[in-house]
Amino acid sequence: MYYKKNSIIYLDGEWVKAVDSHVDLYSQTLHHGNGVFEGIRSYSSGAGPNIYKAREHFERMKYSCETMGIKFNYDVDELVKVSYELLEKNGVENAYIRPLAYLGANMKLITCSEVHIMIACWEWPPYLGYENQKVMISPYHKPSPKAFPVDTKVNGMYANSILATNDAKKKGFDEALQLDLDGNVAQGSGQNFFYVKDDMLVTPPLGNIFPGITRATIIEFAMELGYPVIEKLFKPEEVKEAEGAFFTGTATEVASIASIDDFKFKKNWKDTIAYELFQMYRARVTNDELSEFNLG
User: Fold this and answer.
1) In this structure, are strands 201-203 and 192-196 parallel, antiparallel, or unpaired?
2) CATH number of the structural domain spanning residue 249
3) Structural domain contains residue 1
């Protein structure tokens, strides 16, 4: 589903077919998970494809690389331009874009100096689909920020997410809600978490969670509409007082949550302010004025 016979990727400054590309089997990214990626979405608009907040994503990729000691010798604006060219070469507009900085052969536990960059794209519907999600509290906690830089998008960290998701699926749920080491709600396996109460949004604060760009966007929209947003620590029990809840993320977009464990939320998704924010998000990402780069 990710590529076809004629799919084109950007690899180290060249345009190559995905089927003709290869990775060194001794890559430090493959063996030890030391690499950085991003997830970006493009949407069709009247003015052509709009890659939503492309610069913010590549700036975050740069930050993640620098935090991990990975050389990032790329210009952010140039990578934005490359991303639009990638869409054009593959004939897609509604697409998911995956940049990846991966490392060369190195079995030592010190960052490899050989760095490669790949950018691919494919058509991909919202990661959690369109149905209300049945969620469980996961026994797999998110890593402590004292053990790992949780504000980076490092490949190896997502092994924790896979464990949580696999466990949830085996138990008949759609997705996992993970806690921090103190038992506070942190986030989904790959999404940020919000709950709604009294026309107010509540979400975990930065520090123990990944600072999602879609999370920040929803907070901006809520404030624009005059809805209070509270960022605080809270236990899973507090969520049972909510009217509704939802996940956010670039791949996920905005996904409603029907239940957590055996608790079902009081209100229908469409009767909460979350649905209004979801509609606002969908309208804004396809707005012609949001296009960040004009190939002309």
Assistant:
1) antiparallel
2) 3.20.10.10
3) no
- 116 plus 139 within the same structural domain: no
34 found inside a domain: yes
The model's pLDDT over 118-142, given as tens digits with 9 standing for 90+, comes to: 999 999 999 998 889 999 999 999 9
Query: What is the reported pTM?
Result: 0.93
Q: Determine the residue type at 238.
A: E
Maximum CA extent, the chain: 54
- The amino acid that residue 174 corresponds to is D
What pLDDT digit, counting tens, does each position of 57-107 carry? Answer: 999 999 999 999 999 999 999 999 999 999 999 999 999 999 999 999 999
Domain count, the chain: 2
CB-CB neighbours of 67 under 10 Å:
13
Q: Both 164 and 234 in a single domain?
A: yes
- Identity of the amino acid at 127: Y
Instruction: Give the C-alpha separation, 77 to 276, whole Å.
Output: 33
Taking alpha carbons only, the member of 117, 60, 120 closest to residue 96 is 120
Residues 167 and 189 in one domain: yes
End-to-end CA distance of the chain: 31
The residues annotated with a catalytic role in the active site are 153
Q: How many residues does the chain have?
A: 296
The number of helix segments (H) and strand segments (E) in the chain equals 7, 16
